[in-house]
């Protein structure tokens, strides 16, 4: 049996026929770990092919028996388009999975024969068996997967040269926090699970020097993180991950992270407003942000900051305030997004009840469009301010100053293979998205 698994993407990133994916922006293309785990969950007799629209076009004439499409909200329109072509034009059976179909299965079933709700590990074998016996049902929902004994993904299913040069691995899934804006927390039902440390170590031994942990909060279980870091030290890897800023105030854990090869952490600061953080149940203390960054830098670890604009306490002064903070604290990279109330989250339900959702065009749920009515500024001001911060942070002069500085305390190879391409890649993406323009700070711009 032949199973085609597709990762759709927006038109601006979709590779065209006879074109090659950009090597400059491949830093944003990870190794499709989620799709590889789906592939690992298929029965051994199934021949699987993964198509990522970021690096190759979909062949609608492919000789396949079953088509699977996994996607997030902003890719839903493209996913539905692909599904319709395979079903209506080619007569193929299509199953849909991922965050968006899991949150809105009744919508998604209009474009598919079956919906995988939640994780694939337990659902997919049953779906394939039912398909082969002509008993495929519309909806499949199962318990969350046991991460003990999780199969190691077959990375040979992908062309490694099209993706970031680090190997991606996952030690944990989910997060126990209950941030009401977070689709990840909602998808995993606020549960945190971890693979046995020894299984993670054995997988790491098979991988290259540079590692990215695709975890939502690697230190969610502090004792687990400590055991993992201790056992990683002999491996002499260089690694990056996402975790809570709490690591900055745990001297022992931060030192172990450094000793085990940590060179960069993606941290969700979200907002400089404590009112915003409290209303989102984030649990952070904004007054400690500068100290946290300083402590992490003292461990020779780069900080990749995540900031969200458009929360209810935000006024137009938040943009300049945030940019000044980022410049003073010398963060190495920035992911600034516009608050997006994703279906399936408490935030979406709340805003929907309030009548603040202005569009259900899912293609605009990409962190770059304003899909709701802000409280203390216009939608145009929010979009403008967000774009201005990014344009200033990733200006040529700002990038140059940042890169000169990081070579004074980061491992030079890590700086070259991480901070440099990340900054340049972000600038190129912003230019392609037309987010970088000639901005001037004045009150009229935010009217």
Biggest sheet: strand arrangement: 2-1-3-4-5-6
Helix content: 25-40%
Structural class: alpha/beta
Number of strands: 14
Determine and state the CATH class of the largest domain.
Alpha Beta
Cα(first) to Cα(last) distance is: 59 Å
Corresponding CATH superfamily of the largest domain = tm_1862 like domain
CATH topology of the largest domain: pyruvate-formate lyase- activating enzyme
Shape: globular
What is the count of DSSP helices, taking H or I runs of 4+ residues? 16
| Gyration radius, rounded | 22 Å
CATH architecture heading of the largest domain: Alpha-Beta Horseshoe
Strand content: 15-25%
Largest sheet: 6 strands, parallel
Residue-averaged pLDDT: 90
Give the number of domains: 2
Q: What do these coordinates show?
A:
This protein has helices spanning 33-40, 76-89, 99-103, 105-108, 120-132, 183-187, 197-205, 222-232, 251-259, 274-279, 289-298, 318-329, 346-353, 379-393, 396-406, 412-432, and strands at residues 2-7, 47-52, 66-70, 93-97, 114-117, 139-141, 167-169, 172-174, 192-194, 210-213, 238-243, 262-270, 302-309, 333-338. The chain is 36% helix and 16% strand. It folds into two domains: 2-141, 3-Layer(aba) Sandwich (Rossmann fold), CATH 3.40.50; 165-446, tm_1862 like domain (pyruvate-formate lyase- activating enzyme, Alpha-Beta Horseshoe), CATH 3.80.30. Strand 1 (2-7), helix 1 and strand 2 form a beta-alpha-beta unit. It has 447 residues and is of the alpha/beta class.
């Amino acid at each position: 049996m032949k199973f085609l698994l597709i990762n759709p993407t927006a038109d601006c990133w979709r590779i065209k026929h006879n074109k090659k994916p950009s090597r400059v922006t491949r830093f944003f293309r990870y190794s499709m770990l989620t799709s590889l785990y789906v592939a690992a969950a298929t029965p051994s007799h199934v021949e699987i092919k993964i198509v990522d629209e970021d690096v190759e076009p979909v062949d609608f004439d492919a000789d396949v028996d079953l088509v699977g499409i996994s996607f997030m909200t902003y890719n839903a329109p493209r996913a539905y388009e692909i599904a319709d072509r395979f079903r209506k034009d080619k007569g193929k059976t299509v199953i849909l999975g991922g965050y968006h179909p899991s949150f809105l299965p009744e919508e998604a079933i209009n474009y598919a024969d079956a919906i995988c709700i939640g994780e694939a590990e337990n659902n997919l074998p049953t779906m394939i068996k039912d398909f082969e016996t002509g008993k495929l049902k519309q909806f499949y929902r199962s318990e969350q997967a046991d991460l003990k004994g999780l199969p190691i993904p077959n990375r040979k299913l992908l062309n490694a040269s099209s993706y970031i040069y680090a190997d991606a691995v996952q030690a944990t899934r989910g997060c126990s926090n209950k941030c009401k804006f977070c689709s990840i927390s909602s998808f995993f039902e606020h549960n945190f699970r971890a693979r046995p440390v020894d299984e993670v170590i054995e997988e790491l031994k098979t991988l290259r020097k540079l590692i990215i942990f695709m975890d939502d909060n690697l230190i969610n279980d502090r004792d687990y993180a400590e055991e993992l870091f201790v056992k990683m030290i002999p491996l002499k890897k260089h690694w990056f991950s996402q975790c809570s800023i709490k690591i900055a105030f745990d001297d022992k854990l931060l030192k172990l992270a450094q000793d085990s090869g940590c060179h960069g952490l993606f941290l969700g600061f979200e907002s400089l407003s404590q009112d915003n953080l409290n209303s989102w149940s984030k649990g952070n203390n904004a007054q400690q942000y500068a100290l946290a960054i300083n402590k992490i830098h003292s461990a020779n670890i780069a900080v990749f900051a995540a900031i969200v604009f458009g929360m209810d306490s935000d006024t137009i002064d938040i943009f300049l305030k945030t940019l000044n903070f980022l410049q003073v604290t010398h963060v190495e990279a920035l992911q600034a997004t516009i608050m997006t109330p994703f279906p399936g989250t408490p935030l979406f339900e709340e805003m929907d009840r309030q009548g603040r959702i202005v569009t259900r065009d899912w293609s605009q749920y990409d962190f770059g469009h304003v899909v709701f009515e802000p409280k203390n500024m216009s939608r145009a001001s929010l979009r403008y301010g967000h774009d201005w911060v990014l344009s200033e942070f990733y200006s040529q002069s700002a990038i140059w100053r940042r890169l000169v500085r990081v070579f004074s305390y980061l491992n030079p190879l890590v700086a070259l293979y991480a901070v440099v391409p990340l900054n340049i890649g972000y600038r190129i993406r912003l230019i392609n998205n037309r987010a970088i323009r000639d901005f001037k700070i004045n009150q009229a711009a935010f009217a």
